Amino acid sequence: MKTNTTNEVSKKHTLQLGNNPIFTFGKENLGILIGLLVLCVLLSFLSPVFLSKNNILNVLRQVATNLYIACAMTIVIILGGIDLSVGSTVALSGVITGGFIAFEGLPLWVAVVCGLLSGMVVGAFNGFLISKTTIPPFIVTLSTMNIARGASYVYTGGQPIRVMSDSFNFIGSGYVGDIPMPIIYLVIIVIISVLIMSKSKLGRHIYAVGGNPIAARFSGIKNSRVLFFAYLFSGLMSAIAGIVLASRMFSGQPTAGQGAEMDAIAAVVLGGTSMSGGVGKIGGTVIGALIIGVLSNGLNLLGINSFWQYIVKGVVILIAVYVDFLKKGKGK
User: Fold this and answer.
1) Which InterPro entries match (predicted)?
2) Does domain 51-322 have CATH number 2.40.370?
3) Where do the domains of the chain lie?
4) CB under 8 Å, gap of 24 or more: what pairs does 147-152 form?
5) Which of 5, 92, 194, 202 is an S-S bond match for 148, by CB 3.0 to 4.6 Å?
């Protein structure tokens, strides 16, 4: 009797752990969590500054703008798509917001809304073309990448727009207590993204369309609406990143956001999202972005040339995609 009772208690405990979201998150992302932990331990030995409070907040602040974009990029890639226009949208939203404050004298909230709308227009344009035509997402977003970047240069004449406004600068450089504002936005965006993907009907539709678009269509899902939402959301997150970045730099710059699409894609694939669609979690993307951010920060602390970061990111993407390829091979 005692043995049976012990087994029943053990089973109940296991079931409770299985239903625990923290336990599930750790189990699903065990490999990259171990990788992040090993990287942090190694850097803490190599640099005494790494684990300082200021440096940790600095890493999180730097990771934040990448994660705004990466959360949306996760949804886009789960749908089997790609968005190469996010970096240019970062620049466009930043210069429009900065320009409307510095040149037009508009109130802060109006300028910010216009900046957000600029990103949403780019995202809506991408979403419309991709959902209503057979043009590949790569081609559509490659085109809008050049259009948005060109528009940024045309509007600014290729020069940064200096914004001398304390209220604007607070958006990206302010603090609530000891916590930088970009980190607060990050927490809110990650929570919203997780709720969309794991707790909503839309999230279930995203996984269905990404896994098998034909079956999703036959089951009554409006594939075009799901695709349109994904790219609209991507444009909005890029605009938020652009405004925060412009605020941190005290200026809107047409060169901002260069390579942002690569950073976001690296975080997404490193976090376990499949490039062929249907598989991925926001939680994995968060860890992937943290690994890239910690790695970049560690290279800087160790005095290694920043150019090596490009090589490291390229290798990371290649390894992550290869691991995904191996997983699919085992699943067949």
Assistant:
1) ABC_transp_permease
2) no
3) 51-322
4) 147/88, 148/85, 148/88, 148/89, 148/91, 148/92, 148/122, 149/87, 149/88, 149/91, 149/92, 149/254, 151/92, 152/88, 152/91, 152/92, 152/95, 152/254
5) 92
